[in-house]
Amino acid sequence: MMHQRKNSGFTLIELMIVVAIIAIIASVAIPKLMAARLSANESAAISTLRSLSSAQAQVQSSGSIDTDADGSGEYGFFAELAGAQPVRVSAAGAPAAGVVGTDELNPAVMSSAFGNVNATSQVTRSGYLYQIYLPAATVGAAIAGIAEDAGGGSLLGPFPDSDNGEVLWCCYAWPVAASQTGNRVFFINQEGDLLQTANRGAAAYTGTAGGPAFDAVYSGALDMASPLGINGIAATDGNAWVAVQ
Fold first, then answer.
1. What is the pLDDT of residues 13-25, one digit of tens each?
2. Residues 210-238 pLDDT 10s
3. 5 DSSP 8-state letter
4. How far apart are CA 40 and CA 146, in angstroms?
5. 65, 116, 146, 187 - which has most CB atoms within 10 Å?
C-alpha cells in the first residue's frame, strides 16, 4: 500500500531557492532605498538652508542683535536664532555676551532643535552637519570667519565684528557620512546664494572633523568678503561650486 508523503516543510533545495530569491530582491531594493534616503537628506538640507536665510534676514532687519548700538541689526548664530543661548549685546558700543536667562531671543526664529550645537560648533539634522560663520573685523583687506562657541552662541569671544556682522554671514551643510547620509555639500550666504559641490573622492567633506573651512567657497583665502568661487572663478578649496537649481 502506498502512503502519501506528509508535508514536513521546505526541503533544503527549496529553502536555498527562497534564500536566493530574497537576496536578488534585496540587491535591487536596498540600493534604491539608500538612494532615496540620500536624496531626501539632501532635499532637507536645501530646505534648512533656505529657512536659515529667512531667519537671518528677520533677525537682522529687526535689530534683535545690535552690538554697536548703531540701529543696524546683525546676523546670528544657530543657538541665538533658536533662543537656546542669549544673543550678543552692546557694552559701551562694543560686542559683549548676553546674560543667560535675560537676553535670549523671544520669540525664536528657528526651531529649538537648532540650539543643540555640538562641541565643534555644528548642528546635526537629517544626516547633515551645519555650521554658521560670522565675520571678524577687517584685517588688511580680508575678513575672517568666526564659528559659534562649542555648545552654541557667542559668550566667550572673540565676538563677530559689529559692522561686518551687519552685512556678512555664511553657512555650510555637509554629510555626517559622505555617500551614506548624503553626497553633495551646500552653502548659503547673506545674499541667498545657494551653492553646491558634488563632494566625491578621497577629499570629500564628511563628519564633524571633516567640514569645509569658512573660506572654502570663496575666491580669496581667509576672506569671506571676497567673490564666490563660481562662474569660472576658482574657489579656495579647489572644488567646482555651482548654483542649486
1. 767 776 766 666 5
2. 999 999 999 999 999 999 999 999 999 99
3. P
4. 30
5. 65
Place of cell 559692522: 163
Asked if residues 195 and 140 have their Cβ atoms less than 8 Å apart, the reply is no
- Contact between residue 130 and residue 172 where contact means Cβ atoms under 8 Å apart: yes
Cell of 158: 572673540
Of the chain, the percentage scoring pLDDT greater than 90 comes to: 83
DSSP class per residue in the chain: ---PPP--S--HHHHHHHHHHHHHHHHHHHHHHHHHHHHHHHHHHHHHHHHHHHHHHHHHHHTS--TT-SS------HHHHTTSSBPPEEETTEEEPPPTTTSB-SS-SS-GGGG---TTS-EEETTEEEEEEEEEEEETTEEEEEEPPTTSS-SSSPPPPTTGGGT--EEEEEESSBTTTBS-EEEEETT---EEE---STT---STTSPPPTTTTBSSTT-TTSPBS-TTPPPTT----EE--
